[in-house]
């Protein structure tokens, strides 16, 4: 990994969110989630790219939540962004995933771009209301940026390119061959319709069907220096992008659990009669039903508290800019790994076991209760949660931090 990225002396994401900011973005996200929830199941079945849904995100201001106010952005903090992802996940985890990846992809402006280039990237992003997809998947073969005159030619194939086919910008990471930057990995931001980019439309997963996560093929794509956002680096500030995406995942799974519980509670309340062996008259008064719902609500509340705490901590660390130490970055990554573990397990448990109290009729395809489980089961396979448990255990037992990678 290159060490050429330049961290600003202080991040433009300064301080932390105050109650009024969080209340504002909560209200905005809840409004969008309500609209998405009206036909989430029908759209999931169609499995089309979420182009219409992304327009809703643009109009709401969520797309530019993290961009500075001076460029027309929302001037929000990461805690607000993660909260928005969580809230959208309650009704449409696919669109929430695209938004989460957009936040991370576009944040390379702050984490990877040179300070003197950031203003122009922000201006263009806000004016264009760009949604940033990506083609970065680190477990695929590398894309190659071959030096060509004053620029490069990009070639290769990347799977799992979330948001790329539906968004405005494709963020790609390519290994430079030749020229002055030979051996570096560069992040380049390419407009959706650039010649040589082909969206293969091969995303056919069990869940997250509207996340636009198909493969992208690059064939001789012209890349100029003006398209280069920055280089992949190892200094602590720029590598906060990886704990950031893992924190977004934790909120995604938490939101799915919240949505599954809310939908399950609706179904329980709608059932008139208790099981014939129950001493209760109404189904909702059955002690076994109440026990399961109470268990789920309690576990979700615990994960919410952890997610909120770490969301605030992420802003505090980002605020440090170039003064972020490897130790502070590593300790933050461990806290986020803890959230990833419990959010994954609670998400899977609630989305899978909610059927125990909603009854056999809730298994009908028309009800769509399976959407929550399919979504969390699919995305939680992104990277093995067992390795997050090992990271936490190695820290607790031996004070060991994991080597920096695009997964840690």
TrEMBL record:
In the UniProt record, does the keyword Transmembrane occur?
no
Q: Which GO terms describe its molecular function?
A: 3-methylbutanoyl-CoA dehydrogenase activity; flavin adenine dinucleotide binding
Q: Which UniProt keywords apply?
A: Oxidoreductase
UniProt domain Acyl-CoA dehydrogenase C-terminal: residue ranges:
248-383
SUPFAM superfamilies per UniProt: Acyl-CoA dehydrogenase C-terminal domain-like, Acyl-CoA dehydrogenase NM domain-like
| Annotated Acyl-CoA dehydrogenase/oxidase N-terminal domain residues | 27-128
Which organism is this entry from?
Protaetiibacter intestinalis
UniProt keyword annotation of Oxidoreductase present: yes
Tree of life domain = Bacteria
Q: What are its GO biological-process terms?
A: L-leucine catabolic process
Q: What is this protein called?
A: Acyl-CoA dehydrogenase
């Amino acid at each position: 990994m290159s060490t050429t990225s330049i961290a600003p002396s202080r991040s433009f994401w300064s301080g932390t969110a105050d109650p009024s900011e969080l209340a504002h973005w909560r209200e905005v996200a809840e409004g969008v989630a309500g609209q998405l929830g009206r036909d989430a199941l029908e759209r999931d079945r169609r499995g089309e790219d979420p182009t219409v849904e992304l327009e809703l995100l643009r109009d709401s201001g969520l797309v530019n939540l993290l961009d500075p106010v001076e460029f027309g952005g929302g001037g929000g903090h990461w805690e607000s962004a993660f909260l928005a992802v969580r809230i959208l996940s309650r009704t449409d985890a696919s669109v929430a995933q695209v938004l989460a990846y957009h936040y991370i992809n576009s944040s390379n402006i702050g984490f990877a771009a040179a300070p003197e280039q950031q203003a122009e990237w922000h201006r263009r992003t806000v004016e264009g209301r760009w949604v940033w997809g990506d083609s970065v998947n680190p477990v695929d073969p590398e894309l190659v940026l071959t030096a060509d005159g004053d620029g490069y030619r990009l070639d290769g194939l990347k799977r799992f390119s979330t948001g790329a086919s539906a968004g405005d910008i494709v963020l790609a990471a390519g290994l430079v061959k030749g020229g002055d930057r030979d051996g570096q990995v560069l992040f380049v931001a390419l407009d959706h319709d650039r010649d040589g980019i082909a969206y293969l439309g091969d995303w056919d997963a069990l869940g997250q069907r509207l996340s636009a996560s198909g493969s992208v093929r690059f064939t001789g794509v012209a890349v100029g220096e003006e398209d280069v956002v920055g280089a992949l680096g190892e200094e602590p500030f720029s590598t906060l992008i990886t704990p950031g995406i893992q924190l977004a995942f934790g909120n995604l799974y938490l939101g799915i659990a919240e949505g599954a519980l809310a939908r399950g509670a609706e179904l329980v309340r709608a059932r008139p009669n208790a099981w014939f062996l129950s001493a209760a008259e109404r189904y909702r008064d059955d002690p076994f039903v109440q026990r399961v719902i109470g268990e789920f609500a309690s576990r979700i509340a615990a994960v919410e508290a952890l997610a909120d705490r770490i969301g605030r901590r992420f802003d505090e660390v980002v605020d440090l800019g170039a003064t972020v130490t490897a130790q502070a970055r590593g300790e933050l990554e461990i806290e986020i790994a803890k959230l990833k573990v419990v959010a994954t397990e609670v998400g899977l448990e609630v989305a899978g076991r909610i059927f125990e109290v909603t009854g056999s009729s809730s298994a009908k395809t028309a009800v769509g209760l399976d959407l929550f489980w399919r979504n969390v089961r699919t995305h939680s396979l992104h990277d093995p949660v067992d390795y997050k448990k090992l990271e936490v255990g190695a820290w607790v037992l031996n004070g060991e931090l994991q080597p920096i990678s695009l997964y840690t």
